Amino acid sequence: MSKGKKFIFILADLFFLTILIPILWDYFNYMNFRWELMPSSEIPYIGNHLSQYIFISSSILGALLLICLLILIFYPKTYQEVLLDDKTGNLTLKVSAIEGLVREIVSNNGYIRNPKINVTLFQAKIKIDVKGEIIPRVEIVEKTKEIEQEIKESIQNFFGINYDLKLKIKVSSLAENKSSTSRRVE
Fold first, then answer.
1. Distances (CA, A) of 48 to 28, 88, 97
2. Residues 127, 146: contact at Cβ < 8 Å?
3. CB under 8 Å to 88, separation ≥6 — which residues?
4. Which of 5, 43, 93, 105 could form a disulfide with 47 if both were Cys (CB 3.0 to 4.6 A apart)?
5. C-alpha–C-alpha distance, residues 49 and 39, integer Å
6. What three-state secondary structure class fits 51?
7. Alpha-carbon dihedral sign for residues 57, 60, 64, 66
């Protein structure tokens, strides 16, 4: 897990704990245990402001949960396969077939080494992400645009898919040139 994700999760955890602990503190006395705690409003220095904090943070948390719920409800459904209908029959096209075609095109071009391909199918859209190391040559931007165009044309021609294609090529690093000279061991 990256440091950024860890930091965000730790902050979210601390935020939830600062809401939960005072609530537990106040309702502890209702459980009929042998000892009793003073109310959280009587805690020195923070007791006066604790109720305001709990109200504001609970309001923020409720708004965030509502926004998350709306995102989950309206997030588009993803598919694992596409059904291609023809007059002569049906063909089911899986994500792995599209990934294989894209991987073949990228490896045949020879400009991107170690490609990682991720395909996401939506109802009328295909999202393709290609990540990899690019071999240092001239006209890198033009070569990536050529690869994008070739992938789009190949998917539309080979599979006959008329979906909206979103293609993104990310260069993770430059591949090192391997020198052809080597030392002889004697």
1. 19, 76, 63
2. no
3. none
4. 43
5. 13
6. helix
7. positive
pLDDT of 176: 65
Token pair recorded at residue 47: 């007791």
Residues 6+ apart with CB under 8 A from 47: 39, 40, 41
Q: What is the pLDDT of residue 110?
A: 77
Cα angle 26, 30, 35 (rounded to 5 degrees) comes to 85
Residue 184's pLDDT is what? 59
Q: Which residues of 112-144 are buried (b: 16+ CB within 10 A; e: fewer)?
A: beebebebebeeeebbbebebbbbeeeeeeebb
CA–CA distance, 119 with 144 (Å, rounded to integer): 18
Residue type, 97: A
The DSSP line for 86-108 is: -SS-EEEEEHHHHHHHHHHHHHH
How far is residue 116's CA from residue 150's CA, in Å, rounded to a whole number?
17
β-sheet bridge partners, residue 159: none
Q: Can you tell me the distance from the alpha carbon of 186 to that of 183, in angstroms, rounded to the nearest whole number?
A: 9
* pLDDT recorded at residue 183: 56
- Going by DSSP bridges, is the β-strand pair 81-85/112-121 parallel, antiparallel, or unpaired? unpaired
What number is the average pLDDT over the span 165-180?
A: 69
